[in-house]
Amino acid sequence: MVIEVLESLLGRQRSLSKDTKVKIFSGTSNPALAQEISSYLRLPVSELKIKHFSDGEIFIRVQETVRGYDVFVVQPTSSPVNESIMELLIIVDALKRASAKSINVVIPYYGYARQDRKAQGREAITSKLVADLISKAGVDRVITMDLHAGQIQGFFDIKVDHLHALPVFVEYFKNMDLHDPVIVSPDVGGVARTRLLANKLNDAPIAIIDKRRPDHNKVEVYNLIGDVNDRDVIVIDDMIDTFGTLQAAGDMLKEKGARRIFACATHAVFSGPAYERINNSVFDEIIVTNTIDADRHPLDSDKIKCLGVASLLGEAIYRICEDESVSELF
Residue 47 and residue 139: Cα distance in Å, rounded? Predict the structure, then answer.
């Protein structure tokens, strides 16, 4: 039901009620996505003055009245992650002091999400710390997408709407001529996401990769549970960072007889050696979304295809403002 609802929204536009007082603002992290969301809602992006002092401090001024308005701030906390987070907090503070009725932040990509627990002693749980900072700054609601760990929703003391990009992937792959597709999870933790995509692609079978991570940004692949021989393979994950996990997975899948190999992931982090690995990989195509700004972080490979998620985020904003069900979008 959820995916059908979201698929029906792709390519649409919405108009808020005339008496709805809503404004959309954008930080510098992904202004292109903010513009697409605004276009979906037939609203302009409101003005902020954002500049840096010579010592690196951030200055922000709201350039128009927000008194009595429900405001939405679009700001993924992507690279440079610390600057993106600080900019978001200052925007929120400026809006709070300008008497906004409610402050809602749209964080399509939530930085520090991978530090969601203590893997070893004396480590920080940084995703909880960032959630506390956002909550204490004066935010009323967070809209985010495909968190690395679902329990991060509980780190916030405010409302959190957790959306998923799966409908845009379903729409994309339904229009492809796939040969006996099998959907692959790169680890045990991603099986639920993998099963959802498989169900929507004519109940395709799934396979699971058994992997170990000896250190940060390092991965060792051990075994494949499932059959990929002479099949088109789709590996699905929440994010792609250095491409180490997927590169190792692709090599194994090719050794096991896979025909074409695709990967899809919501967040295109692409740090370190990612592009070199992608270009030298066995993957035929890498499908990502625009939760992270491709203009600020160019997608430097012909293998990469970027899909838009503005309609999903815009629909969530519309339903919040119109007091309609948001849970249908989960």
Answer: 19
Whether 159 is catalytic: no
Q: pLDDT tens digit string along 201-253?
A: 999 999 999 876 666 656 566 789 999 999 999 999 999 999 988 998 999 99
With beta carbons less than 8 A apart as the criterion, state whether 94 and 47 touch. Answer: no
Identify the CATH number of the domain defined by range 166-308. Answer: 3.40.50.2020
Torsion of CA 175, 177, 180, 181, to 10 degrees: -40
* Owner of token pair 């692409």: 270
CA-based nearest residue to 111, from 247, 235, 292, 251 = 292
Q: How far apart are CA 172 and CA 11, in angstroms?
A: 13
Indicate the pTM of the whole model. Answer: 0.93
Catalytic option among 21, 96, 159, 211: 211
Amino acid making up residue 210? D
Task: Round to whole Å and give the CA distance between 262 and 234.
Answer: 5
Residues of CATH 3.40.50.2020 domain(s) within the chain? 2-164+311-329, 166-308
CATH architecture of 2-164+311-329: 3-Layer(aba) Sandwich (3.40)
